[in-house]
């Protein structure tokens, strides 16, 4: 009796269409998790209809991802149903002829044909239905998102009941496991995740090291405290309110600051801030004010006061809003702990700036032969950044001077040498008990 061979054309075409459908749903999934909302938002504003549909999906990405997973699962099942048996019918006669010379192996042809069919389908499914669309979606997220927006919207509407079941079932399982948040993995990145992205971008050469440091500083800006950025009390240069303009000019000549705090009796009683630009303008208009005390002139502006525990981001916003360039920092007892300027706060992000009136030595200067001179009041992270060192940070100190004092537990003298790991610090300059400049070199 003659055996009728099944028609293999339509099952093969059906299998290829199913693999294509699987590729579509994989593209949907990866396009949703990689495309940027800002890019889609700009296209939406330009009137792009596909972008508008994609924006709706991004508003609830879990729904779209649940739909794509449903499509991938159904496509995988259908591929096995549609293509497995026809391919086995195609391979079995070929294997029977191969094993014809070894009758005892003929029984293996059926099992071997099943294995070969599974391997072939898995290969086609993985290459054409998974890896290729995933790679395309990752490389061209915007184009992929716009391409799948319309058909995926239609599919989600037609399969809405099933998508709802998948989405809510996933959410239920996550709640049982104690995992909250979005199921689609398209949540907002944490600061630590963004920092890791920046570090990886620098390591891969996408951004230079200086940009990496600036971005990391910007991310940390809002969480840092005023005491970390302030000029300490011992470095404050202030004038008494009874001082004359002439005395103020002498102070300006020595220190070249653009603004000075004004105090009454002592630094714990700062009553305002004076701007040299305003004083010089007043002096040009009326030279007779040279010998008059500041208290008699309308040049002292109220001082903004902030606790040292305040976040520098909040203080910076207030100073910018009020157009204030200097704030007095107080400790928990109400005494003056230091001061901050808008320039000091900006330096927390962009690095050291230079005052318009001041010419000062750099905080880190190369001497030659791998030797550097350092301003001992520089922060540890600034020196680590400039010299690619790994000096440890600690709540016990913030500056290089503090680090060295922490190591030796005493006040050093000029010329003292302090060793730390493979580094040697030499004290170059002291101002009383304060370390001002040191030399650092590797040994």
How would you describe what is shown here?
The chain folds into 4 domains: 168 residues, no CATH class; 31 residues; 125 residues, CBS-domain (Roll); 79 residues, Uridine Diphospho-n-acetylenolpyruvylglucosamine Reductase, domain 3. The mean pLDDT is 83. The longest helix has 38 residues. The protein is elongated. The chain is 54% helix and 16% strand. A hairpin with a 2-residue loop joins strand 12 and strand 13. Helix 1 runs antiparallel to helix 4, helix 1 packs across helix 6 and helix 8 packs antiparallel against helix 9.
Structure, briefly:
With 443 residues, this protein is α+β, with helices and mostly antiparallel strands.
Number of domains: 4
Helix vs. strand class: alpha+beta
Instruction: Compute the CA-based radius of gyration.
Output: 36 Å
Give the strand line-up of the largest sheet. Answer: 9-10-13-12-11
| N-to-C SSE string, H for helix and E for strand | HHHHHHHHHHEEHEEHEEHEEHEEHHEEE
Residue stretches low in confidence (pLDDT < 50, at least 5 long) are none
| Proportion in helices | 40-55%
Q: Please outline the major beta sheet.
A: 5 strands, antiparallel
What is the strand tally? 13
Q: What proportion strand?
A: 15-25%
With helices defined by DSSP (H or I, 4 residues minimum), what is the helix count?
A: 16
What gross morphology would you assign? elongated
If you average the pLDDT, what whole number results? 83
N-end to C-end Cα span: 94 Å
